[in-house]
Design brief:
It is built from 11 helices and 10 strands. The protein is an alpha/beta fold and about 260 residues long.
C-alpha cells in the first residue's frame, strides 16, 4: 500500500542517524521509528537476551504498523539478532553493518578505530569484517556505553559533555598505535548524532558510519514502489514512555514527528 511505512528499530534514538539519509533519498516515505526504551541500552545486555528480545518486539511492531520493510538501525541488535529476525518475519529486513570496508579504503596510515558498544565490538562478525576488508590495517576497538548515553541525553536537551566525549575517543587513541588512527568507524548508530562534538575534540580524525549505505539499500529494495504524494507526520514509538522519552518527542516534533506513543 502507498502509505505502508518503513519501520526503523533501535534501543534508543541512534537509528535517527539512518532515518535522515533515507529521507534524503525517499522524502515522502512514511516512517515509524520504534525505540526499545524499556530495554535501553542494548550494549550492556547479553547476547542471549538481545537475541530473544528483538525478534519478539519486532513481531509486535510489524503486526501493529504493517510496514513494507524493517530496518534494524542498531549495530548491536543487527550483529546479534538479524538472522533471528529474518527467520521470524515475512518481509524484507535491513541490518546495520559497521563501516569497516569504507574506513579501510579511506585510511592512509592503515590504522583505523572501531567505536561501538561493548556488545558490538566483541562480536565475531566484526572480526570477519576486519579480516575481509581491512587485513592490511591495524584495527583498534573500544566499546563505549558512555557515548550512547551522551547521545541519547543530547536529543532530550542535555548539552553534550566535550570532556566525556574526548575521554572515550582517548580510549582508542591511547592504545598502542592509536596515535596513528586517521579514520574511526562509528559502529553504533547513536554516535553520528555526536558528529559535531567528535569533530571538535578530534579534528585530525575522519569519522565514517553506515547510515548512507543503509539508506541506499532501502532505496534499492523499495525501487518502483508507490509512496504518498506528500509527506505525513512520522510516528515515534517507545516501549517505555517516561520523562526523557517525552522530552525526545518534543525535540522531534520539530522534525516531522507526531507526539510520542507507547507500544
Amino acid at each position: 500500500m502507498t502509505d505502508a511505512p518503513l519501520l526503523f528499530f533501535d534501543s534508543g534514538v541512534g537509528g535517527l542517524s539512518v532515518v535522515a539519509p533515507t529521507l534524503d533519498l525517499i522524502p515522502n516515505a512514511p516512517i515509524v521509528y520504534a525505540a526499545d526504551s524499556a530495554g535501553f541500552p542494548y550494549g550492556t545486555r547479553s547476547e542471549a537476551e538481545i537475541a530473544a528480545r528483538v525478534p519478539a518486539l519486532l513481531g509486535r511492531l510489524v503486526e501493529r504498523y504493517r510496514p513494507r520493510l524493517v530496518v534494524i538501525a542498531c549495530n548491536t541488535a543487527s550483529t546479534i539478532a538479524l538472522a533471528h529476525v529474518r527467520a521470524a518475519l515475512d518481509l524484507p529486513v535491513v541490518g546495520t553493518v559497521p563501516a569497516i570496508k569504507p574506513a579501510a579504503e579511506m585510511s592512509r596510515t592503515r590504522v583505523i578505530g572501531v567505536l561501538g558498544t561493548a556488545a558490538t565490538v566483541r562480536q565475531p562478525y566484526v572480526d570477519d569484517l576486519a579480516a575481509r576488508f581491512a587485513a592490511d590495517c591495524t584495527v583498534l576497538r573500544h566499546g563505549s556505553a558512555a557515548l550512547v548515553e551522551i547521545a541519547e541525553a543530547a536529543l532530550a536537551g542535555v548539552p553534550s559533555d566535550q570532556d566525556a566525549v574526548a575521554a572515550e575517543l582517548a580510549a582508542l587513541t591511547g592504545q598502542p598505535d592509536g596515535a596513528r588512527i586517521d579514520v574511526v568507524v562509528n559502529a553504533c548508530t547513536h554516535f553520528p548524532l555526536l558528529a559535531e562534538t567528535m569533530a571538535e575534540v578530534a579534528p585530525g580524525i575522519r569519522f565514517v558510519d553506515g547510515g548512507p549505505g543503509i539508506a541506499r539499500r532501502i532505496a534499492h529494495l523499495t525501487q518502483g514502489q508507490d509512496w504518498p504524494a506528500t509527506p505525513a507526520l512520522h510516528r515515534l514509538v517507545f516501549t517505555r514512555l517516561g520523562a526523557r522519552e517525552r522530552a525526545i518527542g518534543t525535540t522531534l516534533s520539530g522534525r516531522g514527528f507526531a507526539p510520542a506513543e507507547a507500544l
